[in-house]
Amino acid sequence: MSSPPGPASGLPQEPSNPGSSGSPSPRQLIGFGAGIVGFVVFGLVVGWAADRAFGTSPVLIMVGLGLGVIGAVWSMITQVRKFMKD
């Protein structure tokens, strides 16, 4: 039977909240970047599809891009605030 990692087992104990020292972990940074790219790409794809459907090129792709950038900035602000609280 093995005991959980910790001081008694001689193995280093992992923090219960990784990245709680105020700096994000590499995994959180990758998720952060993927979220920003996702917002922008989603806005572009929806705008492009709407332009094709309504024949309004390039109006709705620009609107989609703008909304994607706004979403990305909003995501960035909320993530930075979360890291600043910790």
Automatic annotation (TrEMBL):
UniProt biased composition (Low complexity): 16-26
Transmembrane portions of the chain: 29-50, 56-77
Alphabetical list of InterPro entries matching this protein: ATPase_put
A Pfam family recorded for this sequence: ATPase_gene1
Region feature (Disordered): 1-26
Keywords: Membrane, Transmembrane, Transmembrane helix
UniProt keyword Transmembrane helix present: yes
Name of the protein in question: AtpZ/AtpI family protein
Organism, as annotated: Skermania pinensis
Lineage per the UniProt record: Bacteria, Bacillati, Actinomycetota, Actinomycetes, Mycobacteriales
